Amino acid sequence: MLNKADLVTDEELTARRRAVEAVAGEQVAGTVAVSALEGRGTERLADAVVDALPNERATFDLPNTGATQAFLAWAHDHGRVSAEYAGERVSVQFSARPAVVERARSRAAGIRTD
């Protein structure tokens, strides 16, 4: 992460990013420039942190009901979600830290599938 990106020009930032990546190589691939003052880069930083954390994945096949929509709202707040709707069913791909995926499994198990 390159902090205080608002204090340098775009050209200087690019040069610094290249210099860091040249020294550290693959260890810092995808360096993120952040300016808290301007709010720039904070979403990319959050995504990079999530990508670096241990992740577990789970797939759920749920009925398209209010309970499933509530589950999806919770899931979006706690991990990464991809949902595909097919008629009366929703296929959900969920990834998060292992403990959160376990909570998601428990919540999904409580949704009636009939």
Task: Describe this protein's structure.
This protein is α+β, with helices and mostly antiparallel strands. The mean pLDDT is 88. Strand 2 and strand 3 form a beta hairpin. The chain folds into two domains: 5-52, no CATH class; 56-109, 2-Layer Sandwich (Alpha-Beta Plaits). Strands 1-3-2 form a three-stranded antiparallel β-sheet. Helix 3 (66-78) runs antiparallel to helix 4 (98-109). It has helices spanning 10-24, 42-52, 66-78, 98-109; strands spanning 56-63, 80-86, 89-96. It has four helices and three strands. It starts with 9 loop residues before the first helix and ends in a 5-residue tail after the last helix. The chain is elongated, with a radius of gyration of 19 Å. InterPro entries: P-loop_NTPase. This is GTPase HflX.
Query: Uncertain spans, ≥5 residues at pLDDT below 50?
Result: none
What portion of the residues fall into strands of 2 or more residues? 15-25%
Question: What is the topology, as strand order, of the major beta sheet?
Answer: 1-3-2
Termini separation comes to 48 Å
| Global outline | elongated
What's the CATH C level of the largest domain? Alpha Beta
Q: In DSSP terms, counting alpha (H) and pi (I) runs of 4 or more, how many helices? A: 4
- Rounded to the nearest angstrom, the radius of gyration is 19 Å
Helix percent reads: 40-55%
Q: What is the H/E string?
A: HHEHEEH
Mean residue pLDDT = 88
Question: The CATH topology of the largest domain, please?
Answer: Alpha-Beta Plaits
> Would you report the number of β strands?
3
Quaternary form:
single chain
Main sheet overview: 3 strands, antiparallel
CATH-derived architecture of the largest domain: 2-Layer Sandwich
Structural class: alpha+beta
Tell me the domain tally: 2
Protein name: GTPase HflX
InterPro entries: P-loop_NTPase (IPR027417)
Organism: Halolamina pelagica
